[in-house]
What does this fold into?
Amino acid sequence: MEDDSISEDDLFAAVAGSGARALLIGRRALVALGLPMMTADYDYWIHIDDIERFNAALVPLGLTVSRSPADARATGRYALENGERIDVIVARAMGLKEGGNVAFDELWPRRESLEFSGTRIAIPSPEDLVRTKRVADRPKDREDIQLLHAWMKKNRGK
It folds into this structure.
């Protein structure tokens, strides 16, 4: 069986080089902050206007796009896959279980830029990561929120 995995260095470099407004979210964003998390996939939230730019940078890595840009815009999400899976959200906003929503255009200006192997990756601020975790509000998301709050208290005094 052929190994279809891509290196994280190559993935992050491709995303950074794409020029797409792309936020790494989910547990990989927590890993980027230094939290000891285990996860098998990547989750990005990209600006709805940057689908083509994002895909153009990742398809050369051997990833296959699950939906056309038009279908992705209509459904708010899609995936890129081979041995890896990258879930991509393209919705302008996502509803919170507690009411209200979290919008990409609110998170983007507050993003944090972290260095990973010489490449800058964008993640939501830790406070906004908490908000993204409240979208699905699964038990593991609530655990992640507790870890984020502890991280913020330790690293930011909040």
